[in-house]
Amino acid sequence: MKVILFYLWLLGLSTCQFPRVEQNLPIIESIRLNQWGFYPDQPKRAVVIDEQGSSDFMIWDHLNERVVFRGEVVLVKEKTLSGKSVGLIDFSNFTSSGEFQVILPGKGKSHKFKIEKKVNQDLAIASLKAYYFQRASTSISEPYGGIWARPAGHPDDQVEVHASAASQERPEGTVVSAPYGWYDAGDYNKYIVNSGITMGTLLSLFEDFPTYFQNQNLKIPESSNLLPDILDEIKWNLDWMLAMQDPLDGGVYHKLTTVKFEGMVMPEEAKAQRFLVFKSTAAALDFAAVMAQASRVYRDFTPEDALVYLKAAEKAWAWAKRNPDQYYQQDELNNTFKPEVFTGAYGDQNLTDEWIWAASELYITTHNLRYWEALKKSDQAFKLPAWPTVSWLGYYSLIRHAGQLNHLPEEWLSVLKINLLDEARELVKMANQVAYKMPMGIKERDFGWGGNSVAANQGILLLYAYQLTGEEIFKTNAQDNLDYLLGRNATGYSFVTGFGSRTPMNPHHRLAAARPDLPPIPGFLVGGPNPGQQDDCDYPSDVADESYVDDYCSYASNEIAINWNAPFAYLTNALEALNEK
Ligand code: 9MR
Ligand code: 9MR
């Protein structure tokens, strides 16, 4: 008997040496989770779609090859937009560091993810380094660009004033130099309106977390100077923006562009003539806001530049006052002016929010009550920032600087805070009603061109709510929005190039499409699901939240853009900064 028991015991021992069933399970796409990682103390959730009944899940330690946590999949009543049933996996109580996968016994494993402190550090750096790769008028050399090094393109020192922008002193065909700046997106043009929100978001990120940025190294050519790297990178675009102002009257050209989009070639091969097109009120106001904010941000580092920025801002504001209705209407302009222009329009026909943003930033920087007068009767309703909707870029700034603004009435300020917190609470509520546990997806309309930047901007709002109240729930929900972007969504993609196991490999990005031999440059957020499908590419699904295709062709769902990366950079860097504390 004893001998038999001994052999049974031995047998038991030896089976332990064999690979466990868990090791050989396939990766299954039905488990949707953040494919990058979580902070140890962060709530950690995954979603299983097409879940039939409740079952168990396990957390598999990828390096030590063992099960480290068990729990139960909870069926939730919320369905996906396509009507799939959903199970929720919650392993928030598992807080060990390492690399893990979720296992559904007998079914399969999820993509890998990490749990560690500073888990978003590399992501945060890459989200900003992305701007370095978008630089016009420079080569990207190997020490900074690695395998994505490339020759210089778009010197932009021979740009022609377009007929739509002609003035007496600068008639059509006048040659102007306006180098530097970032390429807008997958295309190589440079648009003031879209630069506006991008710069406002990045400057605010710096203003909100200045200490954090003292130590961040983006490994760009300017990294060894005294400016924080993020400000070096922002300056590349500021210098271009300055050149977009007509020094004679203070007006700002709407865009610097070719007349048609260039082919999918590298910058050095894209040589079509570039033009300065139309002076618009939107461009002047967005420019004024950015320059005013830049002026106070750079005051501590390069005071001479700060003065230049402020003068430029005031001149643009004055021009806008004299020209309040110069709306950019591309089709109409094309009827009058030749050559016709077919590139991005960024044609906003309602500028009340642009006035608010510019007045806010000028007021904060100058304390001049003239700007408060322009503000005090303005609409304080919450509006999530987007390129045509910028009032809250200004309002966030006013809240940030309220302590230094003696004339800002307490009641007026508290309306702003109430509106901000109401909206943040609404987002928290909505997130609970959506299968993927983030606020987008109650309605199909939540998804549209660049919808991923909506998710990121919601994250920013939630972090302001967190900073104002200290309530953890807001930070948790901001992290949920990041989880969404990194894989807990209806497509199963992490929407950030290079970060995750299933990421965009064929973004609508000329720098990627022209080099299909290379992986895409990391750190770019693609536009995301868009049922509009304006590009007529082949999509795997027509359902709103699944309407995404990883194809070079798809500019409506798979393009990258500076105004989408900015809120993503805000979210990842802010979370790192907040978790450092
Ligand atoms: O590459 C362009 C992209 O940046 C724009 O967002 C998009 C919509 O304006 O247009 C893309 O250019 C396409 C053009 O509109 C139609 N012909 C094919 C071009 C490249 O795919
Ligand atoms: O982000 C813009 C989106 O809101 C518009 O619906 C779309 C069509 O006008 O244009 C998007 O902006 C593109 C710009 O026009 C050209 N560069 C690429 C931008 C991102 O696709």
Structure description:
The protein has 581 residues and is of the alpha+beta class. Among the domains are: 2-115, Immunoglobulin-like (Sandwich), CATH 2.60.40.10; 139-199 and 210-362, Glycosyltransferase (Alpha/alpha barrel). It has 17 helices and 15 strands. The strands form three sheets. Strands 2, 4, 5, 8, 9 and 10 form a six-stranded mixed sheet that branches. A five-stranded mixed sheet has the order 12-11-15-14-13. A four-stranded antiparallel sheet has the order 1-3-7-6, with no helix packed on it. The chain starts with a helix and ends with a helix. The structure holds ligand 9MR (2 copies). Residues 185-187, 261, 344, 555, 559 line the site of one ligand 9MR.
Structural features:
single chain; 581 residues; alpha+beta; Immunoglobulin-like; Glycosyltransferase; six-stranded mixed beta sheet; five-stranded mixed beta sheet; globular; binds ligand 9MR
Q: Short summary of the structure?
A:
With 581 residues, the chain is an alpha+beta fold. The protein contains 17 helices and 15 strands.
The largest sheet, given as strand count, sense and whether it forms a barrel, is:
6 strands, mixed
Strand content: 5-15%
CATH topology category name of the domain at 139-199 and 210-362: Glycosyltransferase
Distance between the termini: 62 Å
Q: Got a strand count?
A: 15
Instruction: Please identify the top-level CATH class of the domain at 139-199 and 210-362.
Output: Mainly Alpha
- Stretches where pLDDT falls below 50 for ≥5 residues? 10-18
Overall pLDDT score: 96
Helix content: 25-40%
From the coordinates shown, what is the CATH architecture of the domain at 139-199 and 210-362?
Answer: Alpha/alpha barrel
Principal-axes shape call = globular
Distinct ligand kinds? ligand 9MR
Query: What's the number of helices?
Result: 17
